[in-house]
Amino acid sequence: MKALFGSRPELARVRRDAFVHGIRIVAPLTLATATWGVVTGVAMVKVGLTTAQAIGMSLLVFSGSAQLASLPLIAAAAPIWVVLLTAFVINLRFVIFSAGLQPFFRRLALRKRLLLAYFIIDFSFAMFLSRFSDTSDDERGTTEQIWFFLGMAAYSWIIWQATSIAGILLAAQVPTEWGLEFASIIALIAMTIPMIIGKPALVGAMTAGVVAVIAAGLPLKLGLLVAVVAGIAAAMSAELVLGKREAKH
Amino acid sequence: MSALEIWLLIIGLTLITQLMRSTFLLFGDRFRLPERVQHGLRYAPVCALIALITPELFVNQGALDISMSNPKLVAGIVAALSTLVLRSMIATIALGMLVFATLQMLA
């Protein structure tokens, strides 16, 4: 325990309490995270990654959405830059997350900031900000906040890696006839639909979906990029139109 | 892809993901994204994820296939409905795969 929370009893208690609190907050998500981890693990192997590559990807990248998104492209032998560009677009939300967490982590040393950055995931970010966004500037960056984040991060990381690696190791036992590669697409559906919040997002998603199908034949998977640009443009246009209509009433 | 290409890809994905998670934690207060750009970026992940999904469902062996005999499309629709109604990832994956496997067996 001392190794984790330090040897000063007062400080160690604050750290431990905040850490445990963080774990309690993410614990209800254990089953969902575990399912997700197993499916991602199996899917990585089913598109042809070796056990070492799949475990490496899981430990290094540690982003279910970026990993799952890259798999259909790897299966289709898309050029590497197309896969990287896709991951870039999927990861754009992390830029926003990092901006949200910056006021809390900015006083820490660079290597600590980089370590915390590795652990940023959608749910932890949302829970952290919903809890602490009302604080004033000098109340940000407390020991309690940092260790609360670490508790969420550590628990999520362990569940994710354990189940993902279990999926990787079990994948060989799963017959190909089950079509489990398709499970990654189903998982993407289960992940994406709850993200469509509000009418502009719905318009954007539908536009991107239709454009992606129409442009599916474009070389280098460029249809994906075209679809994303069209989707964002449609969502922002929808915002303008809907915003004006609301202003009239 | 060759083994080397896969490893390069994994390293590339690692660097991109870590850098993007670190963006503002590295820059500190020195740099801020314009409000409008931040706003537009909000829609990017959803659009990209949907754009990855729909071709997998609607395009069957290189051709558009909007029919009930396309198992991926039917399973995808079931999964989408299940997500909306049941709001459970486990149920959605189980149901979607069950429909997909059944339809494939029947085909």
Keywords, separated by commas or semicolons:
heterodimer; A: about 250 residues; mainly alpha; 13 helices; about 75% helix; globular; B: about 110 residues; 2 domains; two-stranded antiparallel sheet
Task: Please tell me about this protein's structure.
Chain A has 13 helices and no strands. With 249 residues, chain A is mostly helical. Chain A has 2 domains: 193 residues, no CATH class; 54 residues. The mean pLDDT of chain A is 89. Chain B is mainly alpha-helical and 107 residues long. Chain B has 2 domains: 32 residues; 62 residues, no CATH class. Chain B has 5 helices and 2 strands. In chain B, strands 1-2 form a two-stranded antiparallel ribbon. In chain B, α4 packs antiparallel against α5. Chain B is extended. Chain B starts with a helix and ends with a helix. The chains are: A mainly alpha (249), B mainly alpha (107). At the A-B interface, α3, α4, α5, α6 and α7 of A face α1, α2, α3, α4 and α5 of B.
Shape of chain A: globular
Number of domains as seen in the coordinates of chain B: 2
Fraction of residues in helix of chain A: over 70%
Reported for the largest beta sheet of chain A, the result is: none
Task: Summarize the amount of helix of chain B as a percent range.
Answer: over 70%
Largest sheet strand order of chain B: 1-2
